Amino acid sequence: MGITSLTQLERAARSKRIREIRGFGAKTEERILEELQARVAAGAEHRVARAVAAQYGEALLRYLRAVPGVRQADIAGSFRRCRDTVGDLDILVDAERASPVAGRFAAYPEVERVLEHGATRSSVRLRSGIQVDLRVLPAKSYGSGLHYFTGSKAHNIAVRRLGQQHGLKINEYGVFRGRRQVGGRTEDEVFGAVGLPWIPPELREDRGELDAAREGRLPRLVTLASIRGDLQMHTTESDGRETLDAMAAAAEAMGYEYIAVTDHSPALRMVRGLDRAGFRRQMTRIDRLNARLAKLTVLRGAEVDIRPDGSLDLDDATLDALDLVVVSVHSKFDLPEPQQTARILKALAHPAVDVLGHPTGRLLGRRPAMRLDLDRILREAADRGVLVEVNAQPERLDLDDLACRAAVNLGIKLVISTDAHSMAELRFMRWGVDQARRGWVRKADVANTRPLERLLELLHAGRH
Ligand code: DGT
Ligand code: CA
Ligand code: CA
Ligand code: ZN
């Protein structure tokens, strides 16, 4: 139909022209309009997934760092705080006065429109629709500028107030006592001026990080390097795009010690989930593969559907034979809260369950979290020793930051998994780790930072 924009798509659906195409009907038009409505409701046309912003922002950052006279450059703002979505990108540059950085920024090939152009402050819109604000500061202000533009606003205000108590003025240009600058070259100097250690950007939301810093109890956050394996992924046996062998080879090349291959159960018909016999064959293939693999151990897993009534979509004997059982909701996302909660609680009560996958079912900008009593579900998981997933798919990031923190406070062990459907998606681990860090998650809180034996102990402790 020659449609190239969402506006055109909406117009075509409203004027009932889409149903004239073979294979499309009134139902499709309805679904398209619903989806467009959901995007507006979720603010999707204004915020982009952080992983998407990274593709544009990190390329632009490399470009800027290569401009003559640029000494340092960083992406600040919500991107640096690792929020799941970002409204715009804020890039900070430390450059010599003579540097052509502002002009080069405006001339970047991806720029669609220059919104504001000046020597120290510019703003553009990229062809991808993402807006980028650029600030150029001298080296003596770089740390305070980075702190200021990293935010959050609430954190900044709290730090500035602390500064006032110390008789200091803190802004993006530095830390000042009267008219004399006493700091601001680095972020360490900014925090140091108010008697605090450096606080990781992920925590800067005015959610207690200043008190924790003052009392010496900032969490030592989990890092990507401490992840030893990935516990959810799919292969061509269900809806993955690559074979078991290919996924295992990719994971081994990444230096992982173990992975769990978790193809879907039969209820997910559209993805050709495995039935009992299918899982038996898959387990045999995994056993043979393990015999060949030098370093990696492949756990025999499944991502089993939680049916609307809370029962599991696989028989007990097969569940028992598996090394790792992830249970997730993939249907009936719109049940009323009491039913949805009861559904998941019932699934958690099954003795074979190891991990609760993507617990709220949200898809950023497309589908809100299910209505459920998450606190009740997390407490049940804690009581039963069920691990809870932080799904690292950039559109899921489920649990979200606050739920991660709630889970950790309940003593739950989290699992950060990519839910990869291809080898490339194994790299999504980064987004999951960042999300967990926003939730104050430490290495010890994450099951897949443990060596295989410790992980298996944890899984067995959970089987009841
Ligand atoms: P976003 O872009 O909506 O995802 O969120 P941010 O946090 O990146 O917000 P943005 O781009 O409006 O501003 C970047 C940072 O600049 C923000 O995190 C804190 C700082 N900032 C902006 N406006 C103010 C303000 O009025 N007061 C203070 N203290 N800081 C501000
Ligand atoms: Ca921003
Ligand atoms: Ca901004
Ligand atoms: Zn799933």
Describe this structure in words.
This protein is of the alpha/beta class and 464 residues long. It has four domains: 1-35, no CATH class; 48-137, Beta Polymerase, domain 2; 145-214, DNA polymerase, thumb domain (Beta Polymerase, domain 3, 2-Layer Sandwich); 224-458, TIM Barrel (Alpha-Beta Barrel), CATH 3.20.20. Helices cover 37% and strands 17% of the residues. It contains 17 helices and 17 strands. It has helices spanning 6-14, 26-41, 50-65, 77-80, 101-106, 142-150, 153-165, 187-193, 209-214, 244-253, 276-292, 316-321, 337-348, 374-384, 401-409, 429-438, 452-462; strands at residues 48-49, 70-75, 85-86, 89-95, 111-116, 121-126, 131-137, 169-171, 174-177, 180-183, 229-230, 258-264, 297-305, 324-328, 355-356, 387-391, 414-417. Helix 14 links the parallel strand 15 and strand 16. Helix 15 crosses helix 16 (429-438). The longest helix is centred in the middle third of the chain and has 17 residues, at 276-292. It starts with 5 loop residues before the first helix and ends with a helix. The relative contact order is 0.09. The mean pLDDT is 95. The structure holds 2'-deoxyguanosine-5'-triphosphate, calcium ion (2 copies) and zinc ion. One calcium ion binds at residues 77, 88, 90, 133.
